[in-house]
Amino acid sequence: DENLKEAPATPPYNLSEYFKQFLFPQNECELHNFRLSFSQLKWDKWIIAPHRYSPQYCKGDCPRVVGHRYGSPVHTMVQNIIYEKLDSSVPKPSCVPAEYSPLSVLTIEPDGSIVYKEYEDMIATKCTCR
Amino acid sequence: PHSRGRVVSDKISGLLVAPEDNTSELNSLLRLPKGVKRGYALLPPLLKVLSDRGHQNWESEVPRLRPDSRALRYMKRLYKMSATKEGIPKANKSHLYNTVRLFTPCSECKHRDLMKGDVHSVDLLFNLDRVTALEHLLKSVLLYSFDTSVPISSSITCVCHLSVKERDFSSQVCPSISHSIAVSLHFEVRKRKWVEIDVTSFLQPLIATKRRNIHMAVNFTCLMGDPQQNTKLENPINMALVPPSLLLYLNDTSEQAYHRWNSLRHRRKNPVRPRQRSSLLVPTGDKENSQGKRASRRRR
Predict the structure, then answer these.
(1) CA–CA dist B155, B228 (Å, integer)
(2) Whole-angstrom Cα distance, residue B141 to residue B256?
(3) Minimum Cα–Cα distance from A46: chain B residue
(4) Rounded distance, CA A41 to CA B285, Å?
(5) Dihedral pair phi/psi, residue B112, rounded to 5°
């Protein structure tokens, strides 16, 4: 009730948004942008391309009922129950990458030869709770 | 420590080689727990390389050959054709390679042939130390770049004689010729800055045996005119040819390399599963019945 008294009179169509804040944590587990350029790392002398690289990362709290939303196995909920009811030294499920995409890199090797290489799992594209 | 060793991802790509100023930072990341020599032995080979190279300072290593500017231009063009600006490999089914290495010749003893005109032959030595055991050859190409500022008529014909030299260690005589081929090319220089000569079948046996050094003599003669129009091939072009680079298209089978067919297979494994039609499960005896149902369903 207090919340409702405090809450501004929200127009009816915004009700689902309003209730969502009670269903899932504010900073829910999701993918965050991160862009770097190899010149920041001073690696641009030997990494010719790409100039910019967006590895992305996963951050946020895992809601208690993670099932369908994150494609989490049942073990994740079991781990949450252990943390809440049995032993809080067992960590809560973590927000981690679930899928990646590759990256193509053009580099100069120590012997002066040039190599184009495609690396697996270099950019996080989806997050999950585990 | 053992399980912790397993937690460290073995997917760290060869990309994270320590440059000069991040050595300490990277080292602290890779530094092994005190006295965990056993743990070190369990680390994936790649991490060993990283932690070893973490001690080498990028600049203080032996002076390296700076890449040839033409070769660098060619590889940048190959990169643009193979990946997006953000570095994502293009879903190009035709290209199965996930690694392309370009080698410039270590040494070449150019000697002009006494024959008439400009017969350009050079001895080339390519060092292939950078090719790893898990990189399998798909295609190899000799890459000539033409200095197109020289005014040349539109079409020329070139003949390239290639011979591989085996160093015969038993006797001190100079390397003998092990096998050679002649390749004839006809092309228009005005449109092309690069000429690629496919030498895959020629070099396959050497690269398959993980040969570290390839010593070859290349004799490259270009003449004006077009043999099809049987214009007389005359006055050989006096063209300054830059020694060719060796281009290897490889399939890196290591874990951290991107495998197109793998991602294709992955997509095939989890397609959006089409709904099974119940009639497929009907035993044959009721075939007419099910067809009747199907027809009426379709009509509906």
Answers:
(1) 11
(2) 26
(3) B19
(4) 71
(5) -75, 135
The lowest-confidence range among A75-84, B174-183, B213-222, B250-259 is B174-183
Mind listing the pLDDT tens digit for each residue in B185-197?
A: 666 555 667 888 8
CB contact under 8 A, A111 and B89: no
Helix/strand/coil (H/E/C) assignment for every residue in chain A: CHHHHHCCCCCHHHHHHHHHHHHCCCCECEEECCCEECCCCCCCCCEEECCEECCCEEECECCCCCHHHHCCCHHHHHHHHHHHHHCCCCCCCCEEEEEEEEEEEEEECCCCCEEEEEEEEEEEEEEEEC
Q: Please say whether the beta carbons of B4 and B47 come within 8 A.
A: no
- The shortest C-alpha distance from B173 to chain A (Å) reads 29
The neighbour count for residue B195, using CB atoms within 10 Å, is 20
Check if the beta carbon of residue B80 is closer than 8 Å to that of residue B92: no
How far is A28 from chain B, CA to nearest CA, in Å? 25
Q: Exposure pattern of B207-238 as b/e (b: 16+ CB <10 Å)?
A: beeebeebbbbbbbbbbbbbeeeeeebeebbe
Cα separation, B219 vs B119, in Å, equals 7
Residue with tokens 């060796």: B246
Q: Which amino acid is present at B54?
A: G
- Model confidence pLDDT, tens digit, residues A58-94: 999 888 765 566 778 888 889 989 999 999 999 999 9
* Best residue in A52, A114, A121 for a mutation probing chain B (most B CBs within 10 Å): A114
Q: Please answer whether residues A109 and A115 qualify as being in contact, where contact means their C-beta atoms are separated by less than 8 angstroms.
A: yes
d(CA B198, CA B249): 11
Burial of B36 (0-12, 13-18, 19+ CB in 10 A): middle
Q: Is this prediction's ipTM beyond 0.85?
A: no
